[in-house]
Amino acid sequence: MYPFFKQTQGPHFSLSYCSLLLNHCLSQKSLDFVKIVHAHFFKLGLNTYTYLGNHCLNLYSELGHADDALNVFDDISHKNTISWNIYLKRLLKSGQLGKACHVFDAMPVKDVVTWNSMVSGYASCGFLSHALELFVEMQGTGVRPSGFTFSIVMSLVSSPFHAKQIHCRMIRIGMDLENVVLGNSLITMYGKVGLVEYAFGAIMTMKQFDVISWNSLIWAGQRAGHSELALELFYKMRDAELLPDQFTCSMLMSVCSNLRDLDKGKQVFAFCFKMGFIYNSIVSSATIDFFSKCNRLEDSVQLFKEQDQWDSALCNSMISGYARHDLGEDALRLFMLTLRKNIRPTEYMVSSLLSSVSIFLPVEVGNQIHSLVPKLGFESDAVIANSLVDMYAKFGFIDDALNIFKEMKIKDLVSWNTMMMGLTYNGRLSSTMNLFRELLTGGGMLPDRITLTAVLLACNYGLLVDEGVEIFSSMEIKFGVKPGEEHYECVVAMLSKVGKLKEAIDIIETMPYRGTSDIWRSILSACAVYGDLQIIEGVAKKIIDRETQTSLPYSVLAQTYQMRSRWETMVRMRKAVETKGTKEFIGCSWIGIKNTVYTFASNQLQHYGGKDLYLLLNLLGWEMETEGYV
Known about the structure:
Layout (H helix, E strand, L loop, with lengths): L10 H18 L2 H14 L5 H13 L3 H10 L5 H13 L3 H10 L5 H13 L3 H13 L6 H8 L5 H13 L7 H13 L3 H9 L6 H13 L3 H13 L6 H14 L2 H14 L5 H13 L3 H9 L6 H13 L3 H13 L6 H14 L2 H14 L5 H14 L2 H10 L5 H13 L3 H14 L6 H13 L3 H15 L5 H13 L3 H9 L7 H14 L2 H14 L5 H12 L3 H14 L7 E6 L2 E6 L8 H18 L3
Antiparallel strand pairs: 1-2
Keywords: Repeat
GO biological process, one term: RNA modification
InterPro entries: PPR_At4g14850-like_plant, PPR_rpt, TPR-like_helical_dom_sf
């Protein structure tokens, strides 16, 4: 079978020949041949030799046979650092982190390769803080980090402070920052933490750039929200006569998606076509996402149909596009097709599907998707858990949402925000406030704009005026969140409901934004109960100035004048309503009956056999009041 495999006797000339055989094994990647060669070593008594043992150990490791590698490692009489490093890498590659830690502690000598393996192993298993601690410990033992060490560490950095520390350390120990690989890692690191100016500083120190350098810089600008800057960098890249690759084109499509700029996106699309990347999976999925976000879903569907082969990236983009346009049934249908084509669903795909289910599909569909989560091994994924919490909360199964939230091992701020919003919209206002206090005391995170919106909405719905005003007044000083329009709207609505119209108007007047007609509408609604004529007229004028075609303020004024027997003025207001001739936007609701979801406006309920539905809704309303949700 192997004619060149001759019988050799004596170790005096067989070592070089055995090395040749092992190199052939490595090129062929044949486990059977490796075992034949290894058996020959046993016959000649060469299995204890360090050099040949390391070769065999590396071969078994490369072929994924951990048990055979362990046997070879045990046979080596005099293990050197290379022996230990190969064995350590095998353990880490097979996910045996605990055993690798024991081997690491037992090693008599640790070189930079040893430390790099352990730092990388901790990082790949998700123990980022342990990896960084090991990096510090490594320097304490006197081992000088290599460029590869810093490449690993830079990929773990999550704060600007740590990014600057790592960069300073590289300068201090004299690392070659003109090196393209290290320079690219620096650009990516600074882009990840939002320090775009430092990313520019890193590229300025490099003598040579490659496509990855420019891609990293474009990505840094895009990630920081500087989309126009990202496009400018692309133009400079073209001036430097560097040929963009598929990653460049993918990022450009993402930039145009963020800008919602259809014209520029079409230009990039034409460029991708010219470069031959249009049927590349990465570029195609970004283009499908772009057309979807620019309300050109038909173009997304057309491009998706033209693809010769589907993969998870393409299906992700198309399913999220359907979900974004409230086409839940189409998203579900495509998801089923991906399963039939043996395309493994990703976390993002399942999350997008759950978001579409929570809008227009029956909850039973959501339950079926939920049952797939543990089968796919996604039960510990935070993104999917957040989507499940959101889905059950929107369907009103708030206890199920709470159970999922409590079982989450790792909760990010999105998890807390999703749960608090769900509790608020389901009338569990005290639970929202309790969860907010829990976040402040034990969550380990500061609330953001969305968190405070959920809390202020709860204060608004529950008329917790004192608590709401206190949170609103201190949110910038205490949490570093500048009040946005949504926060002002919550506080103004809350104050208006309890008759504090003057305070509500004063808050609007001090807003750094121009008050929208919606924020004045909440005051106008309260004016009918609490306001005097002067306030009602002033608020009505504010709305008319901002929304000239609306008839709402005229209707309220007509009613107010009628209550005060000012008949002539009332008639003028009613004529103004008629001359406007505009239709106010009417909100819609939906009810799921069996496998159908009926959507209707406030005046359409009778169309669906309304009497029975009204009775059912009244019963639900009474039950909610009894349970304290309203």
